């Protein structure tokens, strides 16, 4: 294990639980810690990318922001997997729903993550890599959702490098291929997990429908995604 702290994480070895929930927004990490965890301690404030460890139903769980985009979550998840001994990361984020059957506030589980990113280039693979979730985490998330009365929508998501895309037909093209929702991080997380032989899952709450013009406010995105958070926590304590 590499030396800690790292350039991006002020934690030392032992500060972080084996399972980490990772929202993009550090304030959502604080919300999860304040709302759900007991005996909470803050392990990171570097760059205001807040990280906390506590217990949920007696089991150690950590939560830490991952930022926006694949370069950001790529750094934070890489360090958690490779420097801090983290075994599982569950991304809990927001997404734009693009499939016809996806509605605002639905919870989507990214079984696979399509991408327009060049993140996989670093692995020098002789072909196209297909980033996928841990089936173990995915199976437990679906079961936890059903226990809580939430039917997850499971399928492909798109991890995009662009939020404002110059090609106004791009989203429709991905919709035609059955992609459920668009976000910006899952593919990098899944690739980092695969390379480190660890587990990852992306859970998403639909915050807007870009093709229909529906959306939630920034405050609602930060504090109201409780169904997704509770499903992720139920999965975390089974690790």
From TrEMBL:
Nucleoside phosphorylase domain segment(s): 19-233
Family matches, as CDD domains: PNP_EcPNPI-like
Organism this protein belongs to: Collinsella tanakaei YIT 12063
SUPFAM superfamilies associated with the record: Purine and uridine phosphorylases
Pfam families: PNP_UDP_1
Family from the record: Belongs to the PNP/UDP phosphorylase family.
HAMAP family in UniProt: Pur_nucleosid_phosp (MF_01627)
EC number: 2.4.2.3
Protein name: Uridine phosphorylase
Group of enzyme by EC: transferase
Gene Ontology cellular-component annotations: cytosol
Gene Ontology MF terms: purine-nucleoside phosphorylase activity; uridine phosphorylase activity
Gene3D superfamilies (UniProt xref): Nucleoside phosphorylase domain (3.40.50.1580)
Annotated GO biological process: uridine catabolic process
Domain of life of the source: Bacteria
């Amino acid at each position: 294990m590499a030396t800690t702290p790292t350039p991006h994480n002020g934690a030392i070895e032992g500060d972080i639980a084996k399972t980490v929930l990772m929202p993009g927004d550090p304030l959502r990490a604080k919300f999860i810690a304040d709302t759900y965890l007991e005996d909470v301690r803050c392990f990171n404030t570097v760059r205001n990318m807040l990280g906390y460890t506590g217990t949920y139903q007696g089991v150690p769980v950590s939560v830490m922001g991952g930022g926006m985009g694949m370069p950001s979550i790529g750094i934070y998840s890489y360090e958690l997997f490779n420097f801090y001994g983290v075994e599982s990361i569950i991304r809990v984020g927001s997404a734009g729903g693009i499939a016809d059957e996806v509605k605002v506030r639905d919870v989507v589980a990214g079984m696979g993550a399509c991408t327009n990113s060049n993140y996989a280039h670093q692995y020098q693979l002789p072909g196209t890599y297909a980033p996928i979730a841990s089936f173990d985490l995915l199976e437990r998330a679906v079961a936890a959702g059903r226990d809580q009365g939430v039917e997850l929508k499971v399928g492909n998501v798109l991890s995009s490098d662009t939020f404002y895309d110059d090609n106004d037909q791009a989203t429709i093209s991905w919709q035609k291929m059955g992609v459920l929702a668009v976000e910006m991080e899952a593919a990098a997380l899944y690739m980092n997990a695969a390379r480190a032989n660890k587990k990852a899952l992306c859970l998403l709450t639909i915050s807007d429908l870009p093709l229909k013009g529906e959306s939630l406010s920034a405050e609602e995105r930060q504090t109201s995604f409780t169904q997704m958070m509770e499903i992720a926590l139920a999965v975390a304590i089974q690790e």
